[in-house]
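Field reference: sequence -> structure
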Amino acid sequence: MTATPNGYVTVIWETKAKPGKEADLKAFITAAVTPSRNDAGNIDYEAHEVDGRPGAFVIYERWETREHLDAHLSAPRMQDLVPQMLELIEGSIEDGITLLRPFRPTH
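Structure field:
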């Protein structure tokens, strides 16, 4: 895949469910995947369970630009989901976010 002119943005978000909330968090994440895939500028949005770590999840996202990612994060539906998510996860949402920028050799 070729990066867009501004370079796409990759997000890796790792989280862990509060004890007893594992199935609820999985259902919550499952419901959020398709709407996020349909957001403008989304290249890829995949949810994963961490093998051997019950209740641990990773979401891998790629966006055409940082502006697309920011629009996704500030969308009204995302703002509505935040309080619900905080009831299901350990720690904060921000604690699990890693932003990546691609780079490639020039030759």
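Note: The chain has a mean pLDDT of 91.
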